[in-house]
């Protein structure tokens, strides 16, 4: 259920063209601290109920990792009023679907129901927040589920640990250095009391955002939310004091091995600003210039023209405290990894010294317009965006304003930001090699 960045995800997803309409919403806060956002769209009889918690892979207890992702599974085990194993049956038998995902910075749960089941969705999410059953049998069951997920998606998947490996080198102190899924030895060693304590700290209404989007009546929905969520007591304010990283001032060379691959890979990783900084938006555009689509600079050069790479991509991984900018390439035939690095650096250097053409700039703007329209094309997408903007950016109305940030980015900024962050002495160079290459 957790979102994973794999090889195929090193590109930007861009949707169909269109014209975006402003997303209208109502935002307020309950007395217990729960932030609520309502978006009414009566064009289809569907409603999304979603709760985002301000807890992610970077949060731990007693220095143990992986708790937030573990809870993503554990909180489907059941509640005082929903029996073990009944959650998914209840959703599907009422015509709905549901899921959850965890990042380093937040956890997101949602249901999509026919709109006549709005009350059911709200009740289920209030049950998850107020009455979860956290007992040893559920912990043991989900421990095996998480281990199997780790084996399937990381340990036994080709290139499955790419991001984990580069993150562990980019960060020395900040918890972003550890995998979102955590270390299995930490979960094995965790006590039931620690799981209960983790829940009590992070899964409170004042550490959450509830979004209801779709075929609703605003006033009726407010009454239901007050009835189901209003009585839930708030918790203590969550405080964090993560250590700051020292700047990278010289190239960090590293090697990692993967028994599931036959073709080596090269990764260049750069530590970049947090997601709310303007430079983070500019780096999104830098990524698109370099590797979004077959006409992008790196793909056209290394894959099409020079036939030195099977695949090449650049992506800006947005995170709250620090971003990660990663360039990835798979060599074709006997192309040395050093050659790929040199060719990639040549293209980055061009971005750092020359303005992109006006035609390229206009094409870039069109791509980001298209992506923006696509992200807000469904009520489920709108719900996710509203929760994300409110919790991670502190401004739900970015759903309407963020496109203006991209529109305002200039060709000069693209050049200057590439020059500011994407330099050899500011990065990790990771050779990701087949296991048999290990000496």
**Fraction of residues in β-strands:** 15-25%
Helix run count: 15
As for the number of domains, it is 2
Strand adjacency order, main sheet: 1-2-6-3-5-4
Family: Belongs to the peptidase M16 family.
Pfam family, one: Peptidase_M16
Signal peptide: 1-22
Keywords: Hydrolase, Metalloprotease, Protease, Signal, Zinc
Condensed summary:
It is built from 15 helices and 11 strands.
What would your notes on this structure say?
The protein has 439 residues and is α+β, with helices and mostly antiparallel strands. It folds into two domains: 7-229, 2-Layer Sandwich (Cytochrome Bc1 Complex, Chain A, domain 1); 252-437, Cytochrome Bc1 Complex, Chain A, domain 1. 41% of the residues lie in helices and 19% in strands. It has a six-stranded mixed β-sheet, with helices on both faces. A five-stranded mixed β-sheet has the order 7-11-8-10-9, sandwiched between helices. The radius of gyration is 23 Å and the shape is globular. The model is unreliable at 1-18 (pLDDT under 50). Belongs to the peptidase M16 family. Residues 1-22 form the signal peptide. Keywords: Hydrolase, Metalloprotease, Protease, Signal, Zinc.
Question: Could you outline the blueprint of secondary structure elements for this entry?
Answer:
Layout: E1 26-29, E2 35-40, E3 46-53, H1 67-74, H2 87-93, E4 97-102, E5 107-114, H3 118-130, H4 136-155, H5 162-170, H6 184-189, H7 192-202, E6 208-214, H8 218-229, E7 252-258, E8 265-273, H9 278-291, H10 297-305, E9 309-317, E10 322-331, H11 337-353, H12 358-375, H13 379-393, H14 398-408, H15 411-421, E11 427-434
Helix pairs in contact: 3-8, 9-15, 11-15
Organism: Salinimicrobium tongyeongense
Domain Peptidase M16 N-terminal: 36-177
InterPro entries: Metalloenz_LuxS/M16 (IPR011249), Pept_M16_N (IPR011765), Peptidase_M16 (IPR050626), Peptidase_M16_C (IPR007863)
């Amino acid at each position: 259920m957790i979102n994973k960045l794999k090889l195929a995800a090193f590109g930007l997803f861009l949707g169909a063209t269109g014209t975006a309409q402003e997303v209208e919403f109502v935002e307020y806060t309950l007395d217990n601290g729960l932030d609520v956002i309502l978006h009414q769209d009566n064009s289809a009889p569907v409603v999304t109920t979603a709760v985002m918690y301000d807890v992610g892979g970077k949060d731990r207890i007693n220095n143990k990792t992986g708790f937030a992702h573990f809870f993503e599974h554990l909180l489907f085990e059941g509640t005082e009023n929903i029996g073990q194993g009944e959650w998914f049956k209840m959703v599907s038998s009422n015509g709905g679907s549901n899921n959850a995902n965890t990042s380093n910075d937040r956890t997101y749960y949602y249901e999509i129901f026919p709109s006549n089941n709005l009350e059911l969705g709200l009740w289920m999410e209030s049950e998850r927040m107020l009455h979860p059953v956290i007992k040893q049998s559920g912990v043991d069951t989900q421990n095996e589920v998480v281990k199997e997920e780790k084996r399937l998606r990381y340990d036994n998947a080709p290139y499955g640990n790419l991001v984990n490996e580069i993150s562990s080198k980019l960060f020395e102190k900040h918890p972003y250095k550890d995998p979102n899924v955590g270390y299995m030895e930490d979960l094995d060693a965790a006590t039931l009391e620690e799981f209960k304590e983790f829940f009590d700290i992070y899964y409170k209404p004042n550490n959450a955002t509830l979004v209801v989007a779709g075929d609703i009546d605003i006033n009726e929905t407010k009454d239901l939310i007050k009835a189901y969520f209003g009585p839930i007591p708030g918790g203590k304010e969550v405080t964090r004091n993560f250590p700051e990283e020292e700047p990278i001032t010289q190239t960090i060379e590293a090697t990692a091995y993967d028994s599931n691959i036959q073709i080596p890979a090269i990764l260049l990783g750069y530590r970049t600003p947090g997601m709310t900084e303007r430079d983070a938006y500019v780096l999104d555009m830098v990524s698109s210039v370099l590797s979004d689509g077959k006409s992008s600079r790196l793909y056209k050069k290394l894959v099409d023209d020079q036939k030195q790479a099977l695949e090449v991509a650049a992506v800006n991984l947005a995170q709250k405290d620090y971003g990660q900018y990663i360039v990835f390439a798979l060599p074709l035939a006997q192309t040395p990894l050093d050659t790929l690095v040199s060719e990639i650096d040549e293209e980055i250097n061009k971005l750092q010294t020359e303005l992109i053409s006006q035609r390229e700039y206009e094409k870039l703007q069109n791509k980001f317009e298209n992506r923006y329209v696509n992200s807000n094309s469904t009520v489920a997408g709108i719900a996710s965006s509203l929760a994300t903007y409110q919790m991670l950016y502190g401004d739900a109305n970015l759903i309407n304003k963020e496109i203006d940030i991209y529109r305002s980015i200039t060709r000069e900024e693209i050049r200057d930001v590439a020059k500011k962050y994407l330099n050899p002495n500011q990065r990790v160079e990771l050779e990701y090699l087949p296991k048999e290459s290990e000496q």
